[in-house]
Amino acid sequence: MATRTLGPGKLTITNTGKGRDFSANVTKVQLVASNNTDDPINFLDGSQDTSTSTDWTLEGTIVDDFDTDNLSAWCFDHSGETMPFEWVPNNKGKIKWTGKVNVSAVSIGGDVKSKNSNDFSFPATELAHSAYTSSSEV
Fold it and tell me: Is 88 in contact with 21 (CB distance < 8 Å)?
């Protein structure tokens, strides 16, 4: 039977000594494809060269917390760094996505007396998917 629900799963952005588990602080995660088609190049013989490329971003929504080690502060501290990531959309599913993201600063705060959330969007490269087996199945 297909696993169709996002979560429970995990999202980690890792780098030796600097890694961070985003799983308990995000309410939305997705890999977003942006397909680009360049204008065709016309050749004298009547042929054309058209190229298409896909740019990816890892996007989601972070729920704010105001502790000293909050996720928005971590993003601020590591803004501009490229780090590997792993995203398991559902622990009972059979797929995981990996690649590298360029971390950027994320907004923090919002309405007073509210649980605020802010969106993030990190450019992603070297994307791959592979089989996932949860540690409870090993």
Answer: no
